[in-house]
Amino acid sequence: PGSSIIHNLITSRAVPEVIAEAGGRAIRTRVGHSYIKQVMAESDAVFGGEHSGHYYFRDNFNADSGMLAMLILMRVMNEDGRPLSGLRRDVERYAASGEINLEVRDPLASIEAAAGAYSTSEQDRLDGLSVDLGWAWFNLRASNTEPLLRLNVEAPDPDSVQRLVTEIAKLLEE
Question: How far apart are alpha carbons 80 and 51 in whole angstroms?
Answer without folding.
Answer: 24
